[in-house]
Each structure stands twice: as C-alpha cells, then as structure tokens.
Design a protein that fits this description.
nine-stranded mixed sheet; alpha/beta; Rossmann fold; tRNA processing; single chain; three-stranded antiparallel sheet; globular; nucleus
C-alpha cells in the first residue's frame, strides 16, 4: 500500500455580507448590486467588492449618470450597507434618491418585456388574441428580468416617482451607515493624500458591512474647482488602490458632463479613464443628435463599454455570464452570434439597459405613398441615354412611358403590333398590354 496520500486543500468559505452575492465566475469574489438588474447583468452579476465603476454621461442637458448613482445609494440603504457620499451637497443629493413604490412593500417587481412601468391592460385574466401557432413561441425580450427569489436581499426595484423617507435617512446617519463627505476645492497631491487618508480612517472603523463609496459628479467646477486631466486620473488610481487595500469596499463614480468627451483630456482621454478604473461605460444620450432620436424613438441613448471589472480572473465575468451582451452561447434569445449593441431608456418609473434593435423597415414613422405621377417622370428627348453592349451597332434605346417616341421606332412598332384597342363599357380606350418585340434585322435590340 502506498504511503503517499493526496492532501485536499481546505475549502475556504466566502465571507457572507448582507445584500451581496457570490460571483458566478469565482467563489472568492463577492458582488453587490447597483440597484439596476440590467446593469448588473452587463457587469457580469453585479459590481464586485474591491472594484470601482466609472460612468460617463456627456449630455449637458440630462442627468443619467447621476441617476445611476442614486440607484447605487438606494440599493445600499435598502440592504443596510454603509454608504459614503462625496459631493458638494451630499444631504440634498440623498434627499432626491428614489425609493420603493408607495403602493407596495419592499419586494421584487418583475421587469419582463423591457421593464415597462405601465400595467398590462385587462389584468391577469386578459389574454392577447394572436394566432395559435405563435402562442408557444418565447416572447421576444430586450432586457433581463429581476430574479424571482423574494427572500434574497439583492437588487431591489425602485420607483422614480417615490423618494426615500426622511426617517430612513436620519436613522442611517445616526447609526453611521450613511456618511456625507465634502471634497476639497482642488485635487493637488497634498489634497488627494489628505482626502484619502481621512477616507481610509473611516473605512477602518468597521469591516462587518460592505462600504459603497459614491462620487456623483467628479470634476464639476462647483464642487471640485478647475481640475486637470492628470489630477482626475490620479484621483481614480488612488481610489482603486484604496479599494484593493480594503476588499469589503466598492466605489461608483460619475464624470462631470464636460469631462465625458474624448476631446477634453487630449487624445485617448476616455481610454485613459478606462485604464484607471475597473469598469468604465459611457451613456451618450440621443438628444445631442436629432437623427438618432428619430431612428430610435423608444430609446434615450447608447451605451458603450470601455472596460469591465474582472477581479481574480483573467477574463471579465461579463463575457461569459452577460445575457444582454450576447457573447455567451446561452444568450441566443437576446441577439445573434456577435456582441449586441446596448442602449438605455428612462421611463416614468425606472431606468433600463437593454439591447438595441432596429424597428420595422423604414421606421414606425415612415410615410408610404403611391408611385409618382407621370408628370414628374417626363424627360426631354435629349435626356435619353444609349448603352452600348457587345460590339458597335448593338445598343438599347430606353424611353420613359409618356414621352414622345422616335419616328423610326414608331413605324416599326406599328408593323409588329397588331393588337387592336379594346373599348371599355364606359367608352374609354383601354391601353394595350406591354410586350417585347424582336426585330429580325436587329436581333440585339429590344423594344420595351
């Protein structure tokens, strides 16, 4: 009997935090929800702890980037996690955070069929009357649905028409779960060191709960002053370094609109931001381009992915487990073989990320008319063109209907055409059917 025995490594049990979920890619990675189920799918199941997410919203007349941060804060308050807000007016920002629907308790709400906030007409008993052969077909979906496990405290559905209760905010502040931090007016090296030193001291206080660090508008002139591209990149790198040191924390940041364009920080500015963060995506709204607004009337903007978080793995979990991106084989219901185009829309009650599909051919607003009248197709005899085919002498004369016919072809057509004119009961002559005539002396010529 051999004296060698295989040593089984001890199974390490992942730390269980409230409102978290183990990543499907690695058992050593813990995810927190962003509050938007479709965004969690794009990230590969959620935002991993010890990682940072940056959102760029270049539209000056919208606040989609800040809306993502409000979802991030609302999910942290709903799950009882610690939330740190870095803003010039953090108290006012928290008061505008959305909350659960007023008519329901904090529970899961299904987001099937694109997550529309309108209730189905006719109630549960109202069945849509369609052809019987289509009843067994799977319904076409453009986004993912919220998990049906109501017992799991992960990824709640919030209502944009509701606001977080004031008592909830006061209780979170009193217990230390909600802290409001104000940034320095400048991000010099000394100011950055001081800011992150204070933030690190705050993170050391308690490690029993996950920490969400939220920066709603990084680089805004009102809160941060006049910043350079180097200072922005230094802040993002220092933030990611701090998250690696304290793996129970994560961060979500939105760039100010004037920083979200590629021309601001020089060539390749957005790519540099993507290298300084674990995850980076851009939400470009359509109002900046009226042509896109008319082409995609059911969406509000495009989503572009620059980088995705991939802790403890060489490949991002989003490549394998994201149904909306369409790279995994199990996501055939959301598109073809390649990666899908992504867009977002904001309804009256929620923000949704979904795949981008063209509407019916020509668009829903296309105006179909009859063929143009003969008066608009009349051309002069000089505009007729001759096309040469084969050797010399072989040509085709094309004449539009209604134009004057050459005399030579008129005589030849009169000889070959023997069909009489048919009189209708109303006494109006009926136009004979069009036919192709072949000429023996010119076999290559066709008269239409």
């Amino acid at each position: 009997m051999s004296s060698f025995k295989r040593k089984n490594p001890a199974k390490t049990k992942a730390v269980s935090y409230p409102g978290t979920r183990v990543s499907p890619a690695s058992s050593s990675t813990i995810n927190v929800s962003t509050g938007i189920s479709s965004l969690d799918d794009i990230l590969g199941g959620g935002l991993p702890l010890s990682c940072s997410l940056v959102v760029a919203a270049p539209d000056l007349h919208s606040s989609y980037g800040e809306l993502v941060q409000k979802y991030f804060i609302a999910e942290g308050l709903a799950t009882g996690q610690r939330v740190y807000i870095v803003d010039n007016d953090p108290e006012g920002f928290v008061d505008d955070v959305m909350w659960f629907p007023k008519s329901t308790t904090p529970k899961k709400v299904d987001e099937k069929s694109g997550g529309s906030d309108e209730e189905e007409e006719g109630g549960a008993g109202g069945k849509v009357k369609i052809a019987w052969r289509y009843e067994q077909m799977k319904q076409f979906q453009t986004t993912v649905s919220t998990p049906s496990q109501t017992s799991e405290n992960y990824c709640h559905i919030f209502d944009l028409t509701s606001r977080v209760p004031r008592a909830m905010v006061e209780d979170s502040r009193g217990s230390g779960k909600l802290k409001c931090l104000k940034p320095s007016s400048s991000l010099t090296h000394s100011a950055i060191s001081t800011f992150f030193g204070d933030l690190e001291n705050t993170l050391k206080e308690d490690s029993s709960l996950p920490v969400r660090i939220c920066v709603p508008s990084l680089g805004s002139s009102l809160a941060w002053g006049d910043l350079s591209a180097q200072e922005i990149l230094l802040f993002l790198n220092q933030l990611r370094r701090l998250l690696r040191k304290y793996p129970y924390a994560c961060a979500s940041t939105t760039l100010s609109p004037h920083l979200s364009v590629d021309q601001w920080g020089g060539p390749g500015w957005l790519q540099k931001v993507g290298w300084s963060a674990d995850g980076f995506l851009s939400m470009a709204a359509f109002p900046a381009d009226p042509a896109l607004s008319s082409m995609f009337p059911s969406h509000h903007g495009m989503v572009r992915l620059y980088s995705l978080p991939s802790p403890n793995t060489l490949v991002s979990p989003s490549d394998r487990f994201s149904a909306l991106r369409g790279l995994a084989s199990s996501s055939s219901a959301f598109g073809g073989t390649g990666e899908n185009n992504l867009a977002f829309k904001c309804t009256r009650k929620r923000l949704i990320f979904e795949t981008l599909h063209l509407d019916l051919e020509g668009g829903v607003s296309e105006r179909r008319t009859t063929a143009p009248s003969m008066a608009t197709t009349e051309v002069s005899a000089a505009s007729r063109t001759s096309h040469t085919h084969g050797g010399p002498g072989a040509k085709i004369d094309i004449q539009l209907e209604g134009a004057e016919e050459p005399s030579a072809f008129a005589s030849e057509k009169a000889k070959t055409s023997t069909e009489p004119t048919i009189q209708t009961p109303e006494g109006k002559p009926k136009r004979p059917k069009k036919k192709v005539a072949f000429f023996s002396d010119r076999p290559d010529v066709y008269d239409f």
